[in-house]
Amino acid sequence: xxxxxxxxxxxxxxxxxxxxxxxxxxxxxxxxxxxxxxxxxxxxxxxxxxxxxxxxxxxxxxxxxxxxxxxxxxxxxxxxxxxxxxxxxxxxxxxxxxxxxxxxxxxxxxxxxxxxxxxxxxxxxxxxxxxxxxxxxxxxxxxxxxxxxxxxxxxxxxxxxxxxxxxxxxxxxxxxxxxxxxxxxxxxxxxxxxxxxxxxxxxxxxxxxxxxxxxxxxxxxxxxxxxxxxxxxxxxxxxxxxxxxxxxxxxxxxxxxxxxxxxxxxxxxxxxxxxxxx
Length: 278
Ligand SMILES: [Zn+2]
Fold this sequence. Notes:
Layout: H1 9-15, E1 65-70, H2 80-84, E2 86-88, E3 93-95, H3 109-126, E4 130-133, H4 145-154, E5 159-166, E6 176-180, H5 191-209, E7 222-225, H6 229-232, E8 238-245, H7 249-255, H8 258-277
Parallel strand pairs: 1-4, 1-5, 5-8, 6-7
Antiparallel strand pairs: 2-3, 6-8
Helix pairs in contact: 3-8, 5-8
This protein binds zinc ion.
């Protein structure tokens, strides 16, 4: 993978807040050119004829649209006014975005989520999906959580996922998945589907990374919330994954290892695929 601009990260810890913020990003980026569609019928030349073969290069996620939201953004901490502006997430007003957390050595959540999301994009595009990201780099600001949700909605995503890592007490460890609750709002109609997506992601993440269920939140790594704009405002099936606790030394070391991030990306891609194929 390309190197990430790691420069701004160290400062992040100074003002980092716990991850709880929503993420959903802005500028649509990284769109894969959908591989040219299937069979431009070859001339009816030879004898082999079967008309109902699937195209030779059919892929499991052909035709699926996935929106990946890498939580936070690398330059958020330098633009507090913009980031702290309050936005309406239906159940309350919240800051437009947050800085996210970091490991004790200064590896930021924003850099982590960006790297994992790009790895996921590559994997999912390889499986035929059209993938959209909610931000285009890790040196920008925002977008607001409202916009992050809107990107998934506008894309009519078959599934959307917001990638985060937590900043909890150092003794806590493990991952969890956050799903929306009914709030008498537009998200209500995708609460059931999001729950299925959440379980698929939970199972694939556990299997693929070996990380345990969170020891400090949720039940069996599942948590339901009505305070996250990225979920409340989604009209497509969507979950958040908190990949682990960046303040826990063991998990921090794993997150800083690119090979482990690849493992995470693969696990999350598998979870999405299992949901989409079900
Ligand atoms: Zn976060």
